[in-house]
Amino acid sequence: MTSANRHDRSALGWALRLSHLDLLVTMVLLQLSQSFLSSESGIQRGLFNLLFLVVVISAIRTLSSSKIRMISALTIGGIGFLLASYADFHHSVLLIAATDSCYVVVFLLLILSLAESVFRKGPADLNRIVGAACIYFVIGLFFAFVFSLLETFQPGAFALSPFSDSVGIHQDTVSNLIYFSNVTLTSLGYGDIIPITRPARTLATLEAMVGQLYLAIVVAKLVGLHIAEQK
After folding, report:
1. In what residue span(s) does the Potassium channel domain sit (predicted)?
2. From CA 231, how far away is CA 224, in angstroms rounded?
3. How far apart are CA 227 and CA 208, in angstroms?
4. Phi first, then psi: what are they for 124, rounded to 5°?
């Protein structure tokens, strides 16, 4: 075997061991691209909906540790995509609520699968670190859809900019709430979008607390594993 072949196999093995890398890459792409998609274009609304399905599909390796979770996430994610696509043509509060509920469940399943991988016994390897980063991204998406669900049933729960296009209003709402969720999770608190109602304030506070506690717990876990390896 030549050195080039050994290098290729080593690189392939390294990539295969990073079971959460696909998910991390697609979530970063989701965060970057969704803000540029206009709700006024039917094609771009379709791409917006497709982005979330791609995130679910990219998590297959992450979810593979539990066949039940993997099948459940793929099925519910597919249903969420179909409901979101149908809601683009038939605006309905129930359809929007069902779509948001599907993604809330999917991202919760992802958090559980990632947590099992990140907090299991074993060395503090790169895959564990990538998984920890994935959890942070998924928490932001999870709360974004929880916020969207609240806004659907309690319009005005968040101080959002008014939208004139009733067809694309859900996309605009979700996009803005993804931004708000990430700002809250990282405790930036710009103040351009604020929670108005008591449930909205409670959920926003909860997310901020989760974000701070998660970082502290993950750092403690990784440092503990590193110290254990040195002994």
Report:
1. 141-223
2. 11
3. 29
4. -85, 75
* Residue 208 to residue 135: CA distance in whole angstroms: 15
User: What is the C-alpha separation between 141 and 178, in angstroms, rounded?
Assistant: 6
User: Phi and psi at residue 227, in whole multiples of 5°?
Assistant: -65, -40
Each as own residue / partner, the long-range contacts of residues 198-201 (CB below 8 Å, 24 or more positions apart, any chain) are 199/150, 199/154, 199/157, 200/147, 200/150, 200/151, 200/154, 200/157, 200/158
Residue written as token pair 């965060």 = 31
Q: Can you give the pTM of this predicted structure?
A: 0.87
What is the structure's pLDDT at 6?
47
- Is residue 179 predicted with pLDDT exceeding 60? yes
CATH fold of 3-230: Helix Hairpins (1.10.287)
For tokens 């859809």, the residue is 145
Which residues make Cβ contacts (< 8 Å) with residue 132, sequence separation at least 6?
118, 218, 222
Max CA pair span of the chain: 66
Average pLDDT over residues 75-89: 91
Q: What is the dihedral of CA 103, 212, 29, 190, to 10 degrees?
A: 100
Q: How many CB atoms lie within 10 A of CB 29?
A: 14
64 sits in the region (left: phi over 0; alpha: psi -120 to 50; else beta) called alpha
Which tokens go with 59? 């998590």
CB within 8 A of 128, min separation 6: which ones?
Answer: 117, 118, 122, 222, 225
